[in-house]
Amino acid sequence: MSPVSAVEIAGLRVVRGGTAVIDGLDLTIGAGVTGLLGPSGCGKSTLLRSIAGVQRVAAGTVTVLGEPAGSAALRDRVGYQTQSSSVYDDLAVLENLRFFARVLGLPPAAAEAALASVDLTGQGGVVVGRLSGGQRSRVGLAVALLGSPALLVLDEPTVGLDPVLRRDLWALFHRVADTGTAVLVSSHVMDEAERCDTLLLMREGRIIADGAPGEIKAAQGVADIESAFLALVEGRGIA
Question: Where is the ABC transporter domain (predicted)?
Answer without folding.
Answer: 7-229
